[in-house]
């Protein structure tokens, strides 16, 4: 069955950059909108970005707008999250997830499959 695996997390200094990858296996992502979420200790899970299947329309949370860029390469069955100008408050476990929609729904939409997450730590 479809599985998602995140990679690319790590330790980075404030102002630095990371690119996260969400690779799918056991199926294809081309029919699904894909979201990136994050969760930090003591905070609720937050959807930081989403990219649609059709037209690759994107959404961003206000907290990351202008700093993060989501993209997808359906030929590689992979979705990316480029994170620039990272701040300590970006520290979290980042997850990707798929929803049964062509276009991005609201952040509370029931995504049907999730990855295991990758840790991003922004600290000096």
General description of the model:
- This protein is mainly β and 124 residues long.
- Helix content is 0%, strand content 48%.
- The protein contains no helices and eleven strands.
- Strand 4 and strand 5 form a beta hairpin.
- It is globular, with a radius of gyration of 13 Å.
- The mean pLDDT is 96.
Q: List how many beta strands DSSP finds.
A: 11
Q: Can you tell me the residue ranges where pLDDT is under 50 for at least 5 consecutive residues? A: none
Rg estimate, integer Å: 13 Å
Please report which band the strand proportion falls in: under 5%, 5-15%, 15-25%, 25-35%, 35-45% or over 45%: over 45%
Secondary-structure-derived class = mainly beta
Secondary structure: helix percent: under 10%
Characterize the main sheet.
Answer: 7 strands, mixed
Query: Distance between termini?
Result: 40 Å
SSE string, helices as H and strands as E: EEEEEEEEEEE
Number of helices: 0
Averaged pLDDT:
96
Query: In one word, what is the shape?
Result: globular
């Amino acid at each position: 069955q479809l599985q998602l695996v995140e990679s690319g997390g790590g330790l980075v200094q404030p102002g630095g950059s990371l690119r996260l990858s969400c690779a799918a296996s056991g199926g294809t992502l081309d029919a699904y909108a894909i979201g990136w979420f994050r969760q930090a200790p003591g905070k609720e899970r937050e959807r930081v970005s989403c990219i649609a299947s059709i037209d690759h329309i994107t959404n961003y949370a206000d907290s990351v707008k202008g700093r993060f860029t989501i993209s997808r390469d359906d030929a590689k069955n992979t979705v990316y999250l480029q994170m620039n100008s990272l701040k300590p408050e970006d520290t979290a476990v980042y997850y990707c997830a798929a929803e049964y929609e062509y276009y991005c729904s609201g952040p509370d939409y029931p995504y049907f499959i999730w990855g295991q997450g990758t840790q991003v730590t922004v600290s000096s």
